[in-house]
Amino acid sequence: MKKITIIGAGLTGLTLGALLARKGHEVTILEKEGRVGGLARTYEFDGQFYDPGPHEFCTDNPVLIEMLKSILGDDFRICHKKAAQFFMRRMIDFPVRPLHFFGQMDKVLILKIMAELVYFRFKNLVCETMDYSFEHWVTNRFGSTMYDLYFKPYTEKVWGIDPSMLDPRTASERIAFNSVFDIILQTLSYSLFNKEQYGSAHSPLKYTFYYARRGIGHLCDKLLEECEAAGCKVELNWELESATIKDSKAHSITSAAGDVQEGFDVLVNTVPITVLNSALDRDDLNTDLRFRSMVFCYLDVPAPELDNFHWIYFPEKKYSFQRITDFSHFNADMTKEGHTGLCAEIACFEEDELWHMDDSKIVEKTIKELLASGLLKSGEGVKGWITREKHAYPLQINGFIEHVATSVEYIKTIPNLVASGRQGLFKYCNMNECMEMAIELADSIDKDKEHSFSLDSTWKGAHNVQIKEKTTKKSEAKKSAPKKSAPKKTSTKSATKSTAKKTTKKKITDA
Fold first, then answer.
1. Is residue 383 within 8 Å of 329, Cβ to Cβ?
2. How many of the other CB atoms lie within 10 Å of CB of 67?
3. 200 has a pLDDT exceeding 50
4. What is the pTM of this model?
5. Of 122, 276, 408, 417, which has the fewest Cβ atoms less than 10 A away?
């Protein structure tokens, strides 16, 4: 039996804690907030339930599906996705049906787009294409017109920096198709054989998804029950402040309130990797690691239905939000009869004016934009609430994986310290991957097996890109993303301070 301490009671931490406690290990989970869930939490306002964006499971992993069914029981819900993009005042199905899309657009514009698509398709077949950035990846596959019209404004809105400064692997991971021709072939294949595309983590050709009744927070509450039933201890309002290294191992951790946890055999971090680096007195590792923040605006609309979509993307910059989710369609008992529950996702940085804007003004702004779109017919009787998430998306500037790998290599020099999860590995992954990482890590810790620290995408083709770094782009990216100046820490947080260096993978062992 091992004594294991897990920092963070999000989906990864709770799943890992429950699995290890069931195996007979002594597990403690430490959570900064006053409730569990992390990014996977549900808010209740005026009798309605809201998730911060759609928190659906799209997976064909039988082990994970059975685990979800076992945990949720009758609260496990199956849905069939219906999504759209609101583009140029037209509602376009998502995934895009090319003939439907082209049929709604200006014919001259379509001819220009088609000419570019044919040109770049031919060029890619006969010439080696180098992908310097997100901009190059998209332009090399979809042409400059589609890039300028659609991809560039949407990407700038989501990430807050110029797409030329984003790593090309961001595109290869998040855009599931390599070209319009790929879209046509895969869509046709789905139409003929009804086979969903689970080979790609982010393919829109997955129409079946699973949801928890009353929202994702209910799943986390059930996981908490599983943890406590198995003897796992969960401490709330415990914020990591510092970590002590002794004899090259993680010896103790201290909270902001001064509470000390020590004597663990294994320490698992699932909170933002930047927080762990700071606790280890290695702020130098955070220089190129930034998070994109998010403001969530929840609206209670006294109308039974606004549209028949689960969620709608808004790529144009005239709308501050990037996506609207309608929870009345989730078959999850989240809305009151005769009401609609919406969530608008608005990306920003902590330094932006929007982050500090009064809640009522954000609600007013969101309602005004929805009225302008025509999706909302009347603002009368609409109520709104705001939540903010500081670490919503890892900002994937050029070379970000190499920057993360530097932190991971340092963590690997501490044999009883492991990083995992979306936040812990600075990894833009979905919930199913978070739980799958927890399942794998629980087995590794239980059986003293080596842990992989995988930074790769779940999509097997995600990194099939030719990357050539341009130092000018990299330096521009650093300048573009706003940074907070942190004072140099003078307190010593480790008894034996190590420098980051390359090492071979080490086995997790009893201390």
1. no
2. 18
3. no
4. 0.83
5. 122
